[in-house]
Input
Amino acid sequence: MRFRLRAGADEGSFREADARLQTGFAYRQPGLARRTTARSEDGEWIVIDLWRSAADAAACGVRWDGDPDVARFMALVDPASVRTERYLELDATES
Output
């Protein structure tokens, strides 16, 4: 997920909300192997989640909208800037 913070959002508050989301929601999701958050020099943020399967990621998406930690996180995100992308890992034996 790529995004920018809402105008006037405090980065410290966002980082706190992100940490709370990571421990209180993300790492409690079945199939989540790793999650990391990073910021570019121009202020765009990215959250990368590595999942065991696409089904695990989809199941998390169903729970996403009803979670209070997610709501605190998303309250600081500019909704117009959000882009969610999914990638599949390439099998090492493919050419």
In short: Helices lie at 11-24, 54-64, 68-74.
